[in-house]
Amino acid sequence: MKKIIFLFILFTVCHTPKNKTSFNFETTFEKSKGLETATYNEVIKYYSNLAKTYPEIHFDSIGSTDSGKPLHIITLNMDADFNFSEIRKNKRILFINNGIHPGESDGIDATMLLFRDIANGKIEAPKNTVLVTIPVYNVGGSLNRNTSTRTNQNGPKAYGFRGNARNYDLNRDFIKSDTKNAKAFAEIFHLVQPDVFIDNHVSNGADYQYTLTHLFTQHNKLGGDLGNYLHTKMMPELEKKLSEKDWDITPYVNVFNQVPESGFSQFLDSPRYSTGYTTLFNTLGMMVETHMLKPYKQRVEGTYELMKSMLEITEEDGENIKNLRKDYHQKLLANKTYPLNWKVDTTKSSVLNFKGFEGKRIPSTITGKDRLKFDTTKPFTKAIRYQNYFKSTDSVTIPNAYVIPQGWWNVIDLLKLNQVEMSQLENDTLLEVESYKMDDFETRKQAYEGHYQHYNTSVKSSIEKIAFRKGDYMINTNQRALRYLLETLEPQAPDSFFNWNFFDTILQQKEGFSPYVWEDKAQTLLKQNPKLQIAFNTKKSFDKDFANNWYAQLDWLHKQSENYEKAHLQYPVYRLK
């Protein structure tokens, strides 16, 4: 009998899950009755302890951040399988990013609660969906804790700062990747390859009744059946589920210092932003924007319910999401053209039954001018115009391939980081390619996220034979990274590498002329080229500024000669048709 009892005890010990009472999983948010958010160290320790307790949770770190600390990735899979290549075969992946702006800490606390409540069985565990989170993306900003920089925000008591360790706004860095944070995010994103993406934020702007607003990636820009699904199925289903839980939600209120009832447009998330970046790989993306003036406890609880609802949608509709993403990628590969720039389509709009507060202009006691004042004792529900349809303003033909000389290693490194498939020429090769010459662009007058960014960019195209060297890169567009390639390598795209100053060295001439030397050579040039003489005379006749500027005249002639350097304004990425 003693032997039987001993064997029973041994069997029980060997098959008992990890001790689930070893750690206290009450969060800082809960202990403070909804008034405080966890510190960075508390967050990381919490997830580490969860992983030690529950085999369904995996705790890991990838890369580094500008703070010197790594970027953590936490995965919850009820099968306790954490090989993403295997996971993707049978399950969908919901990826949650938190703390990109650490002062907007709602998602940090809400996700801690969500992972715990799934692991301990408080809420039903997903069978076909895996949850992944970056618990705190902006590590440096989270460590830079204060109580005052969120001027408009109602709690928590202390929080992190918007800028990262190098004072970058990380939600403008997904394409240019100036920070180690963005590089580590890209590594995680391409490892995970999520189906659905949520980035948790807190809004600025007007006052209104809602605690929750959603900012889905713009559905026309996402495109096709996938964009239509996001707009007509996923978004309404999320709103419906939250309504059933007594949580009102509205689209992100895209206004500043004006009343929302005058109407507003959807925010257009270009690829510099998180959801614009994830869209490049056909991931269904959204930002949660809780309302800054609502109590912190209420905001965290709303974020929790929204993520739970999105998890339910992913669980219920996972197979459809998988097929839509796969089918749309194939359609993109078959397309001949790709839209680059977008604007509001004023011929279409939606109607929101918006729950706001009466706002009016009253004299300011500080400035003496009119100021906006909301009266929270006067709520209303009004039908307002919401412009959530966009149309493309230009497009580009999709080349079969791009060719990039190996000297542009800064661009090539970013392409590799984003798992762009490429090969190197094995020999020096002469290729007939489409070549761009920069035609026009404007440049910001003030620094923006470490750059003086270009915009309103246009190019002139020509077909030329270019001699490429052994080791230069050939990039076929028939691949998963098609949209990423088009949005970064086509100079006209809003967040192209050109517009982010990666190619600014081509904008400066390296060779010039001495006027007293060139004057004599220019005379010979005009004598030998009668058509050039006519063009020169015509320009002087019709352009007074040109006619009165002797140096501009010599410079114009120099640019028509073989002495003018070919590298000036020559875009060094070539298109192979």
Characterization of the model:
The protein is an alpha/beta fold. The protein has 3 domains: about 1-215 and about 245-255 and about 270-320, 3-Layer(aba) Sandwich (Aminopeptidase), CATH 3.40.630; about 395-510 and about 570-575, no CATH class; about 515-560, no CATH class. It has 17 helices and 19 strands. The protein has helices at about 1-15, 30, 40-55, 85-90, 105-120, 140-145, 180-190, 220, 225-245, 275-280, 295-335, 410-415, 480-490, 515-530, 530-540, 545, 550-560; strands spanning about 55-60, 70-75, 90-95, 130-135, 195-205, 210-215, 250, 265, 285-290, 335-345, 350-365, 370-385, 390-395, 400-405, 425, 430-445, 455-470, 475, 575. It has an 8-stranded mixed β-sheet. A 4-stranded antiparallel β-sheet has the order 15-18-14-19, with no helix packed on it. Strand 1 (about 55-60) and strand 2 form a beta hairpin. Helix 14 (about 515-530) crosses helix 17. The radius of gyration is 28 Å and the shape is globular. The model is unreliable at about 1-15 (pLDDT under 50).
